[in-house]
Amino acid sequence: AAFESLTSRLQSVFGKLRGKGKVTEDDVNEAMREVRLALLEADVNFKVVKDFIARVKERAIGQEVVKSFTPGMVIIDIVNKELTELMGGTQAKLAKAAKPPTVIMMAGLQGAGKTTASAKLALMLQKGGHKPLLAACDIYRPAAIKQLQVLGGQIGVPVFSLGDKVNPVDIARQALQHAKDEGRDYLIIDTAGRLHIDEALMEELRQIHEAVKPDEVLLVVDAMIGQEAVNVAQSFHEQLELTGIVLTKLDGDTRGGAAISVKAVTGCPIKFVGMGEKIEPLEPFHPDRMASRILGMGDMLSLIEKAQAAIDAEKAAEMERKMRAAEFTFEDFLEQMAQVRKLGPLDQLLEMLPGMGKLKQLKDIQIDERQLARVEAIVKSMTTEEKRNPEILNHSRRKRIAAGSGTTVADVNRLIKQFDDMRRMMKQFSTMMGPKGPKGGKG
Ligand code: GDP
């Protein structure tokens, strides 16, 4: 999958940092050296990498990390924020003309996914309550017009075409008039692509630009080609002031370089990403979400932020004890359930944890008073040894516990299963927080 190797390398760097109780300047330097290599290997532009590492180092060494009681988490947080910044910071929205139609010109090399992206964009707009019109201006690639018509038919968006004998500039101009006449509020122009950038192509694109004065010029680039995508974007941008980039094929096996460096190199933001061949609404690009995806954190980062804001050192030390998987007993489980209930809806918390897919069954834990009472009864029917070593709970023990607590063996089984799941979750949690957990006052 996309970013796979980058993500796993970054995670191993951060894992090492979290393993340390105290982080020194040397640790930060070493970690940054590895992050640098990981980014270069992911095909991120080397100058971008250099600046990025310098910025992260500066923030990391300038007190934030060394002083923190959760140094590993602070570094992840810094890297995440800088990565988000690198990719544009906030979501770059589609422009809107003061007077409709908003004209969007799609450009790109052949095979980048321009026609597909045009249809996806049309679908996105249509789902947003708009009335887009597609214009077929690629008269050179055999079947390009047909392809657009088929896609338009699939999604129920009209396609303006004058065949392949009319000049694309004229087609664009007439398409604009047609959009106005028909009250369409967006015009999406699918232009021709070539295998390579050449002067004839650029000239035609400039003429179309001149003729329809687009509000958006979106360059469609294939993320799979890595650095080359960035080069392509730069050349297009120099010749045809782009307003945004559509990065396609992010569903594929891309190493990530293009997504990370294209904004920094060209100054042009990624506005959308393509995630498949199927015509689905084009996905807006969110730098922050992409950063957490690259870091492999899911929404863990927002959880970290929440935790950092809400947990004081004293409480964190207490939590640390609880989260140590090895010490986690059925008694802690009881307490934990009561605590989690105070934190807010359990399933919301779970959704923020990475790798939660496997633990979906945890969602079945309904924490209400009655259930807590039953859990309590079951736990109280266990011997101390059973509470500490749930592994020994064989069938006859379970039967005894069920009888003792006035529940059924199925109830007991369910609880043990939930306990195991919870324990696994705690383990994940404590890995996130480092083997020592957040550094509390008592260390
Ligand atoms: P164009 O020449 O730039 O108009 O490219 P097309 O839209 O015809 O797409 C070229 C090929 O890439 C087609 O086989 C598409 O199905 C495929 N494609 C386009 N976008 C994506 C994407 O986001 N993911 C994947 N996996 N394939 C894509």
TrEMBL record:
Residue ranges annotated for the SRP54-type proteins GTP-binding domain, each copy included: 269-282
Entry EC no(s): 3.6.5.4
One Pfam family from the record: SRP_SPB
Domain of life: Bacteria
Catalytic activity, reaction form: GTP + H2O = GDP + phosphate + H(+)
Gene3D superfamilies assigned to the protein according to its UniProt record, in alphabetical order: P-loop containing nucleotide triphosphate hydrolases, Signal recognition particle SRP54, nucleotide-binding domain, Signal recognition particle, SRP54 subunit, M-domain
CDD domains: SRP_G
Positions of GTP binding: 108-115, 190-194, 248-251
Compositional bias of kind Gly residues: 437-443
Location relative to the cell: Cytoplasm
Alphabetical keyword list: Cytoplasm, GTP-binding, Hydrolase, Nucleotide-binding, Ribonucleoprotein, RNA-binding, Signal recognition particle
Chief location: cytoplasm
Assembly description: Part of the signal recognition particle protein translocation system, which is composed of SRP and FtsY.
Summary of the function given for this chain in its UniProt record: Involved in targeting and insertion of nascent membrane proteins into the cytoplasmic membrane. Binds to the hydrophobic signal sequence of the ribosome-nascent chain (RNC) as it emerges from the ribosomes. The SRP-RNC complex is then targeted to the cytoplasmic membrane where it interacts with the SRP receptor FtsY.
Entry remark concerning the domains of this protein: Composed of three domains: the N-terminal N domain, which is responsible for interactions with the ribosome, the central G domain, which binds GTP, and the C-terminal M domain, which binds the RNA and the signal sequence of the RNC.
HAMAP family: SRP54
Family from the record: Belongs to the GTP-binding SRP family. SRP54 subfamily.
Name of the protein in its database record: Signal recognition particle protein
